[in-house]
Amino acid sequence: MGTHAARVPSRWRVHGRNKGVLGTEPDGRPIAFTGTAVWEVRDGRLARNWVERASWELRQRLTA
Length: 64
What we know:
Blueprint: E1 5-17, E2 30-42, E3 45-53, H1 55-63
Antiparallel strand pairs: 1-2, 2-3
Organism: Amycolatopsis tucumanensis
Protein name: SnoaL-like polyketide cyclase
InterPro entries: Cyclase_SnoaL-like, NTF2-like_dom_sf
């Protein structure tokens, strides 16, 4: 039986409170950022993934 692989893209958004994310002072402010991921599934199992998130923009907002 051969190996079956597929790549599945996703886009997501995280909501929460700042508890010191990205080395900033934990101040409890609401935070939100987006990202994308590509999941490689091989034979029904996660083989690897690639993630990109908008952390630079989040850090800029928290340190402004």
